[in-house]
Amino acid sequence: MVEVNNNLSQEEFDKFKKEFHSLKSKLNASSQNKESTYRSLRSVTDKIKARNQKVKSLKEERDDLTKQVKSLKKVRDDLNQKVKDNSGEFKKIADKKKEILGKVNVKQSPGSIKREIEMLQTKIETEVMPFSKEKAITKTIKELKSQLGEFNKINDSLKEVGIDPDQLKDMKEIKKQAEESHKQVQEVADKSQSKHEKINEIFNELKELRKEEKPLAEKYLAQKKEYEDVKKNFDESSKRYNDLKKELGIREEETMKHQVKEKKKEVKEKMRKGKKLSTEDILAFQA
Predict the structure, then answer these.
(1) pLDDT value of position 279
(2) By CB neighbour count within 10 A (0-12 exposed, 13-18 middle, 19+ buried), where does 236 fall?
């Protein structure tokens, strides 16, 4: 803080005034430095806050996916267990069907045979063709129906040995569901892992941001303390400066009054002695 004595000359006051304005400039510079550091710090803390919110959101999404994986695994495991429990029966039925199929000349599945029959029948109904061609197609349809009849015989043969053909179909469907369920587990697990990796990536970013944040926070606190100290000195000096301006103004006014009074005495003495008055004397006498 700038210090002065109460009995102040104009020269001393001017020196004090200069020091006071220097202190004011220092306060302004300190404030600007503090605010600049604060803006940098705020920018980093905002980034940290945004990433923390992102991590929270990703964790919720990951945890939800993890629950889905757990649920899907149970479904998959139940299906796999059914496949395992029926694997012996499945092999028995498949082998028996293969054995019976080996005894007949059928190269297509019942489904493909039915589709081919429907296609050929539609062709006969919708296309204009020579009788010979229509006859050939009709013959093909008859042969296909004969093959389809062979499948019916196969099913009857399976039933005769106590095997339900639909059971084989059901077992295949269960196995297919188990495979699809496993694929679904993998897809959801991959999504969960992706979320987890993203969380770790953001954690690394947060680590770097906190390294950046620490020195800025320390710098800001130091600059804030410096600003507060300078502000305290400035406030005290400002009060003293205003008091001294007022005090100096009163003293100057009293000095001027005294000088005018003395000048009037001199003029009166000149007039008493009959001396010639100057313009300055006349103005002083009229004051």
Answers:
(1) 72
(2) middle
Q: Which candidate, 143, 123, 142, places its Cα nearest to that of 133? A: 123
Q: Can you say whether the dihedral through the CA atoms of 205, 208, 214, 215 is positive or negative?
A: negative
Per-residue confidence (pLDDT) for residue 97, from 0 to 100 = 64
Question: What pLDDT does residue 127 have?
Answer: 87
Asked if residues 181 and 72 have their Cβ atoms less than 8 Å apart, the reply is yes
CA distances from 212 to 32, 102, 181, 221, 246 (A): 21, 77, 47, 15, 50
- Residue indicated by tokens 């940098």: 40
pTM: 0.54
Domain 10-242 has CATH 1.10.238: no
Neighbours of 161 (CB within 10 A): 10
Instruction: State the residue for tokens 């301006």.
Output: 245
220, with CB counted inside 10 A (0-12, 13-18, 19+), is buried
User: What's the rounded mean pLDDT across residues 247-265?
Assistant: 62
Measured CA to CA, the distance from residue 237 to residue 17 in angstroms comes to 10
